[in-house]
């Protein structure tokens, strides 16, 4: 399936790169950092997903239960690109890119691969502007390390998420099923 | 129960058939296997029919295999409507690299249009 999706002709951005620190709409100080070694951040991210309200799951992720969450993250950990948002030292948001290839060890140029994006923000931190910041900084980080093509799917009825993705420059690329596919070009 | 299983020729189809055959043997359902035409599939319609035959004989299960022409979703729903089926079984989605469950357009069409209970096999 790799290499088959349509992408906008023009690159979006530029996007800001992490690290950054800002005050959210509720006056909380939020830090955004890239996690270059995801193994060390994994535990904090697992903790966030344990707290995550399953009513906000999308297409089966995140799974529920600590062991299933751990298995899911460990499966994608080695080759994924991760940016996390924290408040008072705890991870409250996580955005990631996973390469769409059957052989991630063989990637020698990140621009050759399409990257799937997902982003989750803990419920009590939603609607405070954190998702937009997290998303923009993930794309800024991705652009810095040579990623050019990013895609995602979102449930077609999830209008707030679709609006967020459109705001940063994602374009709808197909509507033939329950999931809306969207794509953005960074370079 | 009278069960129809719909296959397109993907690896997911093989898994769906295996599980359905096991279930059929356990509970003594009547099974019909429908193989649709989906040109972009890993296996052609003929190859899928061959694999289905092999799988059924290996499981010592007698089931009619039919080939359906035309648009896959529509053909499956039409065939289900014409027969006396209690349940239509299809593959229940693929996983994206991220692990997201993705349902394709055929699945969506079948879910929205089939007159019977539809079972999605994961």
From TrEMBL, chain A:
Pro residues bias locations: 9-19
Keyword NAD annotated: no
Domain of life of the source: Archaea
Keyword check for Transferase: yes
MF GO annotations: acyltransferase activity, transferring groups other than amino-acyl groups
Disordered: annotated segments: 1-26
Keywords assigned by UniProt, alphabetized: Transferase
Cited InterPro entries: Acyl_CoA_acyltransferase, GNAT_dom, MshD_Acetyltransferase
Ranges annotated as spanning the membrane: none
Domain N-acetyltransferase: 32-187
Pfam annotation, one family: Acetyltransf_1
Protein name: N-acetyltransferase GCN5
Originating species: Natronolimnohabitans innermongolicus JCM 12255
Taxonomic lineage: Archaea, Methanobacteriati, Methanobacteriota, Stenosarchaea group, Halobacteria
From TrEMBL, chain B:
Pfam families noted in UniProt: Usp
Entry keyword set: Coiled coil
The keyword Coiled coil appears for this protein: yes
Positions in coiled-coil regions: 42-69
UniProt key word Cytoplasm: no
Domain UspA, residue spans: 2-122
InterPro entries on file: Rossmann-like_a/b/a_fold, UspA
Protein name (Swiss-Prot/TrEMBL): UspA domain-containing protein
Source organism (scientific name): Natronolimnohabitans innermongolicus JCM 12255
